[in-house]
Amino acid sequence: MTNFSASRLLAPVRHGAVVLALAALAGCGLAGVGGSGGDATPSAQVNGGATTAPVESTPVPSESTPVESTPAQTESTPVQPESTPVESGTADKAAAPVAPGGTLVDGSTVSSELTRAGQKDKFTLDLGDAREFWVTDMEGADIQFQVFSEVDGEPLGPAPASLSYGTSLFKLTKVGGHRLEVWGGTNVVGPYSFRIATVKVRTFPAAIGLKIGEGSPAGAGRLDPPGRIDRFEFDADGATAIKIIGGQCGDIAMELFDAAQKSVAEARQPYPLCGNEFEIPLASGTGRYALVVRSPAAKAGTYSFQIVRAG
């Protein structure tokens, strides 16, 4: 630190004292010293308690990718902030789309693009306890995807699915983590998008003659959040066929299962429910059955129908 002499410091002070004395003699006293004019404007307060939502950085696990006939694939961009898990009833209010390298949860959407030949985009799957999920709202010309197990690097299923259109159902049959990979055909680039919805099944008691609608029975009549499936179990009670009278609703379908069948996400021979009437034969006049109501595109929506004896 530089040392200044005392005489250099006192000189300005003496000079200031002389000026003040002369001003007082001249009748021009200094007013307002230490008054309101001396108040400092408060500085903006920084709220140290406010925090942004934490961003989890999940490293993309290494994998053993099967040999493909297409050109060598290049990795996607580094991990981006992942979407927030969607709560019940809010999945249609989509969070920000998940970027390649991020983590997909129930309700996540993806809207990205393959910008170079051989590009492969990877997403980590974190679906909680769900073992079945739909990939829906798919778009991507000549672009395909597949789900892989992190345990052995092998794909789930014999072949990749196309992102061109429609909905695909996947079942996680292995323990451990999984990832979803997206790539294009030979020299294919372009945009793609999709949405994730886990399968959520609930069961209601029913009977022939029952009219079902929103809130009747309690909780029925609405598929919400997306991915919801409602099962209505009933006794044949001597009927060899039933008639369904569908109310007004959106794109919702119905299908008959044996009540013992619990895996009902995969459609076999569904009937369009909304605004339609149709008969469904029963194997005999005995036994228990389940009417399964689902959205083919795993969307939320309301529905209503009545079960009538037809035979």
Can you describe this structure?
The structure is a single chain. By secondary structure, the protein is mainly beta. The chain folds into two domains: 57-198, Jelly Rolls; 200-309, Jelly Rolls, CATH 2.60.120.380. Helix content is 6%, strand content 33%. The chain has one helix and 20 strands. It has one helix at residues 6-25; strands at residues 103-104, 109-114, 120-125, 132-139, 143-149, 161-162, 168-171, 178-184, 190-198, 200-205, 211-212, 222-223, 228-235, 241-246, 253-258, 271-272, 277-281, 288-294, 301-302, 305-309. The strands form five sheets. It has a five-stranded mixed β-sheet with strand order 1-3-8-5-6, with no helix packed on it. Strands 10-13-18-15-16 form a five-stranded mixed β-sheet, with no helix packed on it. A four-stranded antiparallel β-sheet has the order 2-9-4-7, with no helix packed on it. The longest helix has 20 residues, at 6-25. The protein is elongated, with a radius of gyration of 34 Å. The termini are far apart.
Q: Can you give the mean pLDDT?
A: 79
Share in β-strands: 25-35%
| Straight-line distance between termini | 105 Å
The strands making up the biggest β-sheet line up spatially as 1-3-8-5-6
Count of beta strands: 20
The 3D shape can be described as elongated
CATH architectural group of the largest domain: Sandwich
Major sheet characteristics: 5 strands, mixed
**What is the N-to-C succession of helices and strands?**
HEEEEEEEEEEEEEEEEEEEE
What's the Cα radius of gyration? 34 Å
What helical percentage do the residues reach?
Answer: under 10%
Parts with pLDDT < 50 across at least 5 consecutive residues: 1-74, 76-92
CATH level 1 name of the largest domain: Mainly Beta
Number of domains: 2
The CATH topology of the largest domain is given as Jelly Rolls
